[in-house]
Amino acid sequence: MSRRAPQHDVDEHRLEVEEPPEAVAGPKAVAVALKMAVEQMGLRRTSQTLRRLNQVDGFDCQGCAWPDPAPGHRHAAEFCENGAKAVTEEATLRRVDRDFFAAHPLDDLRDRTDYWLGQQGRITEPVRLRPDGTHYEPVSWDEAFATIAGHLRGLDSPDQAVFYTSGKTSNEAAFAYQLFVRAFGTNNLPDCSNMCHESTSVALAEVIGIGKGSVSLQDIHDAELIVIAGQNPGTNHPRMLTALEIAKRNGARILAINPLREAGLVRFKNPQKARGIAGRGTELADLHLPVRINGDLALFQAIGSLLLEWGCVDRDFVERHTVGFEDWAAHLRTLDWDVVRRATGLDRAQIEEAARMFRDSSATVTCWAMGITQHRNAVATVKEIANVAFLQGNIGKPGAGLCPVRGHSNVQGDRTMGIWERPPGHFLDGLRDEFGFEPPREPGLDTVAAIEALRDGEAKVFFGMGGNFVSAAPDTEVTEEAMRTADLTVHVSTKLNRSHVVHGREALILPTMGRSERDLTGGRLQRVTVEDSMSAVHASHGPLSPASPHLRSEVDIVCSLAEATLGDRHDLPWAAFRSDYTEIRRRIARVVPGCAAYDEKVDRPGGFVLPHPPRDSRTFPTERDRAIFTVSPTEVLQVPEGRLLLQTIRSHDQFNTTIYGLDDRYRGIRNGRRVVFVHPDDIEAFGLRDGQRVDLVSEWEDGSERRAPSFRIVAYDQPRGCAAAYYPETNPLVPLGSTAIGSNCPTSKSVIVRLAPDTGGTDAQVSDAGSVIAGDAKRTVEPDQLS
Ligand SMILES: Nc1nc2c(c(=O)[nH]1)N[C@H]1C(S)=C(S)[C@@H](COP(=O)(O)OP(=O)(O)OC[C@H]3O[C@@H](n4cnc5c(=O)[nH]c(N)nc54)[C@H](O)[C@@H]3O)O[C@H]1N2
Ligand SMILES: Nc1nc2c(c(=O)[nH]1)N[C@H]1C(S)=C(S)[C@@H](COP(=O)(O)OP(=O)(O)OC[C@H]3O[C@@H](n4cnc5c(=O)[nH]c(N)nc54)[C@H](O)[C@@H]3O)O[C@H]1N2
Ligand SMILES: [Mo]
């Protein structure tokens, strides 16, 4: 399979490569964020929004899920460069209105990148694409709901519809949405989690009894050792750097485990402090282990075996709170160090140095993200991380614990609210008892299974609550084809993206408010609630007036759709939900475990923290009522001669498929995204040269090949045999069938590729990269029209 790169995306005439910086954040970060904000929002709106971001009486950043400091400990500017970009992206004054759609037929929009589409601005009214239509056209809300309801009611079975969620949706909208979907009759609720931390959720649920992390922000501050594995906080969770700085000041050591020496793990200049502006900043990682991609399972086994050998065992914890220790220890005693060396690319001395850091710490927090979860053996790797924590009793005590760092700002809350294709029985019992109908019990489709069902004609309607399914999902060509076979695709969105232009026979875009906007649904000022990566739940109120008077909130959209589809079936309180979200919170309090008195508790300054038995009392609600040591085989991911193991990552200028700009400052890239980072010796061994353009061709076990054209080779330090390139440009390379065992998460961090002669796009005479802001995107509203 192959596809041409969009011409304006092949930016070889502008792309610049320089040395990555030695420190991150600092005044440069503030300057970059403010420039982008003022360009798109104007001065007044910039100050109006950023002032309220992450404040107790303000709104929750729609960027990442990193927690806020306790009330009283927040800065006047409690946000990071990338948080400011996320707000700008939403609060921009650019607009996509009916004239835009009239001027841009789908044939035109289909050739645009996600960057161009996103830069056009906020969508202002609902639009519809009729069967065989050439343009999206305005449609009334009522007609839109009637169209969707007509399709849904016409299905042979509710299981022929798929209801996706991205992780920005508020708890109120998520709860109402899953209630609607289950009342309609299906558990087909795939979400972005299925491509993200699903491996974590599955592994932790099995071994500690709950699929969430066990630490608080205070634990990070108090830790003696912080391990950061497969995560790039400088870009993806920049406010974590402030917590790491505090921890360092308190004496913590930091161990970074990452094939790349990410600038954000090296040195941090806190832009909120004079010291950060003037001085050299804080040294972060004490040790960086440049692990080979996918070597973490073997690495944690090796660390475990050394700790065992050195007698570093918390006997009391192991005896009182765990099962399976003996089997695990026996397995590690047979560990083959040659296999470890090949899997990790590290020698024994390096691993011993890391193990000594564990040995010398009596309170260790281990953090991880996509570098761990998006591999074939990801679930086993997370369990191995847990094994090492159990060994030293590093869970359920101050300064210690397991810390999966989540992605989307409310992805964890959405799951708590029931956005889950495999809901636990007790959750469904709760819904039944509260709402008096029998919810479906059959597990639904996750993201990969949903694509397969669409592809095979088994699913016919796709409904997306936020997100950009087509670009975010693996195997772009297969996914796009699957979407095209649908009878109807619907997206509740703030901005245009590729999922709107690769559509079913009929398509709708329902424009919604973002979190920065004042929600006056039902004629009253509504607030919503969200949960961060550390299970803290709190309220969020947007300060801005909505991007257009025709927008509706996600809650409103769900309730209206439910009324149109279900009529008075099951007699559910949609009108009450819509007129006052307090009514939804009252129901959440009665259905969702740990949420008693929800509405009162979320209003406390800083909100409240959901219960977590391992963290709170060292109780482990697993099948064995204890924490479970598990045994996994030590593996080496085999890469054939002449091939590379490619990981697909985020640049500093994007939020998932939303591209803020074309720079990746911390990796020394300017003005381009089609780059592939390769070790200089590998470049030479392949007879290639730095700066050359190549196609990336992935090879899958069934013999099929996938091609992503025209990437510029950039020599970059990392373990031999490894490579990195940006997502989503590389999603065409990830085979749909290549997923993690146990969680079905696409293996976006281990794709076997070869570098092939460039076939597409090199003839680009003019790079359009710089001109995306030109033309239609100039159609902005005046700031004075808004308040
Ligand atoms: N600004 C910004 N913030 C974001 C996002 C964004 O796109 N932009 N996305 C949000 C979302 S949804 C998520 S899930 C998170 C993602 O946050 P991250 O997980 O930090 O995101 P990635 O860019 O995928 O980076 C993965 C990191 O793992 C490393 N890595 C890759 N393979 C391996 C491996 O085999 N072993 C080890 N040890 N390391 C490996 C990579 O070098 C890289 O540093 O960020 C969230 N926050
Ligand atoms: N190759 C590869 N693929 C990956 C990954 C990877 O590392 N490598 N990472 C995976 C991960 S971790 C994740 S989480 C997924 C992300 O997958 P998604 O969550 O589906 O993707 P996003 O890019 O975050 O979605 C952006 C769109 O959301 C809409 N939006 C923004 N704000 C709002 C809002 O407030 N409400 C509504 N209704 N819509 C809004 C906008 O229209 C915007 O275009 O991608 C996954 N795919
Ligand atoms: Mo994510």
* Tally of helical runs: 32
From the 3D coordinates, which CATH architecture of the largest domain would you assign? 3-Layer(aba) Sandwich
**N- to C-terminal distance:** 50 Å
Q: Averaging pLDDT over every residue, what do you get? A: 92
Q: How many strands in all?
A: 31
Radius of gyration: 25 Å
So what's the oligomer here? single chain
Outline, from the CA principal axes? globular
Q: What topology, given as strand order, has the largest sheet?
A: 6-5-18-17-16-7
Q: How many domains comprise the coordinates?
A: 4
Task: Report the β-strand fraction as a percent range.
Answer: 15-25%
Cofactors and ligands: ligand MGD, molybdenum atom
GO molecular function: 4 iron, 4 sulfur cluster binding; formate dehydrogenase (NAD+) activity; molybdenum ion binding; molybdopterin cofactor binding
Protein name: FdhF/YdeP family oxidoreductase
Keywords: 4Fe-4S, Iron, Iron-sulfur, Metal-binding, Molybdenum, Oxidoreductase
Family: Belongs to the prokaryotic molybdopterin-containing oxidoreductase family.
